[in-house]
Amino acid sequence: MEKKTQRYVVDPERIAAGEAQDALDRAAALLRTGGLVALPTETVYGLGANALDEHAVMRIFAAKQRPSWDPVIVHVAPLANLGDMLDGLIEPMAKDAPARQLMEAFWPGPLTLLLPRTDAVPDAVTAGRPLVGVRMPGHPVALELIRRAEVPVAAPSANLFGHISPTTADHVLADLDGRIDAVVDAGATGFGVESTVLDPCQTPMVIYRPGAVTEEQIREVAGDVLLYREAGVIEEPEKPLPSPGVGLRHYAPRARLITVEGAPGEVEKRLVVMAREWSQGRVGIMLPRGWNLPAGAEGVQVAEWGRWGEPQELAQSLYGCLRALDAQGCSLILCPLPPEGGIGTAIRDRLRKASRAK
Length: 358
Prior knowledge:
The protein has 358 residues and is of the alpha/beta class. It has two domains: 6-227, Alpha-Beta Complex (DHBP synthase), CATH 3.90.870.10; 256-354, Rossmann fold, CATH 3.40.50.11030. 31% of the residues lie in helices and 19% in strands. The chain is built from eleven helices and 15 strands. It has helices at 18-32, 54-64, 83-86, 99-106, 123-126, 140-149, 169-176, 215-222, 264-277, 311-327, 343-354; strands spanning 6-9, 37-39, 46-50, 73-75, 111-116, 131-135, 153-154, 182-185, 196-199, 205-209, 225-227, 256-260, 283-289, 301-307, 332-336. An eleven-stranded mixed β-sheet has the order 1-8-2-3-7-4-6-5-9-10-11, sandwiched between helices. The chain has a four-stranded parallel β-sheet with strand order 12-15-13-14. Helix 1 (18-32) packs across helix 6 (140-149) and helix 10 runs parallel beside helix 11 (343-354).
């Protein structure tokens, strides 16, 4: 008989309410006892398990159909001080500068640091690598859940491997209903794209995955940093990946995704031409708010994206728009590609990985 996934609703504005307290206690008990709980963060929903319980971590990989060579990120919460939960995961010298500077500047928040791990961290978490990705999420429900569980929580995105990341509890259940124990529903996430992943131990530091904490912000706080450049698509790597989300087709809809780059007026025209030329089914277009779809695009499915000049809006609704067009049966999705810089770099990264040929 298929497992039923429990849905616990918690209003982030009313965590102290009795119903929220009960829901958090139930979810925390599941995490302590080896269960799988999808939880909201400020980036996307994560699929959480006790990071110190290797069997529980392996259940994440099974539920997501995630290969063992792809490491996962560990989420921590402050107890009496920053070090309480973190100290058991990373070597003492790992909290020296610049890591300490970055924690103080961006935690809680969407920055993951790759740091030397202790023996307490199971190999399943890091894919056997010596560094573990750790972050302190900036979502009040995530922090309270981790505090109550009293264990660090390993939590990659709560979706099937390679599919579009979830930014609502409904997205989680669309992929994982019956495969996990519970989801804590706290509404839509804020940033909409995953955390920045940074190795501060290299000189210069290396961003393996761009996110809401930008290259410019990191450089201002801790010095020189480079953006990792991938050699190409890696379907079956010969060794574990250096970071989550590197070298793979990720964040992808079922439909074929094609990105279009250029000035808004030029892109609007090209979208129509490409939609007309597609003969293999329904076409969907990610259309920024305020853009006009020229005549000739009748019959296409349109997902209203954020405002072009507000990249944070584009990031927040990116995955929801892709999922909406998938749900409408589109076989092709056309998407304008935002310019580089700030969180626009993260959006480009996700769209580039999602559009890689199957």
